[in-house]
Write a structure and sequence with these properties.
With about 290 residues, this protein is α/β, with parallel strands linked by helices. It contains eight helices and 16 strands. α6 (about 195-205) runs antiparallel to α7 (about 230-245).
Length: about 290
Amino acid sequence: MESTALNSVSKIDDDLYVITETKSIHCYLLIGKEKALLIDAGYGYEDIHPLIRQITELPVMLAVTHGDPDHALGAMHFEDVWIHPLDYGKLLMNDTPKIKGTMLEHRYHKMPETKELIDKEAYLSTSIGRAKPHFLKHGEVLDLGGKYVEIFHTPGHSYGHVMFWEQEKGRLFSGDQLTGKHNIWHFLGSDEQAPFTLTYASLKKLAQKGEQIKEVYPAHGKYPLSLQCLIDILECFAYELAENYGKDIPFHTAMGDAWQHLYKEVNLIYSDERLEEFLGHPVIRK
């Protein structure tokens, strides 16, 4: 199966493939009898339709876990995009030459070879405006033709973050909300990211599926993960974070300074403001 210098293609199962953009963002292609579902589309540095067409000739439905640039700007190459309504504004906000230029510089820094591979002018001039939005809702079930995928609204990393649970084989496509040891960012302002209380509540509801969740497929890092990654983050929010945040270390990013909390398979990047809101009292560090 052919890949490109920007997007690698791997077969996971007869009905599941992954297209990984710039060795970082996993875009999963789930195939039913009547259509295929593409979960996330990356930055969209190149049109991945030729890669999809070597896998299936079925109609493809693009649905994104949330509106961050590395998950949804690839919608610029599609005629339609399914997204939670709370994140559509976020997607539009990210669809500017300034934001896309910043993302390109970030990628050049991490992978210098991409500077020769990406058509910068074409990338900055293309907009997701051509992709007609369709809005996902919690509990909705997508029928791919004998393959059913349930939508779970899991606010936290963004207000409109969703996960996709494929019922037949128990696969959960978790976006940026469950990522194993890959870090989860929760340090942006309350206008972009939901409080920990909402995150915890939505993950507790998800956990009611229990062992019906057989495998977890995150948008970054190692895959598949086990149900343990969900158990670990629930323990973290239930009691462990409050008990041990004082041991956390500073975490510096281009978007600001934060703290890093490590617990089993959890790698949580957060702000004191977010933590104080969750604990209900000021953060005290020694």
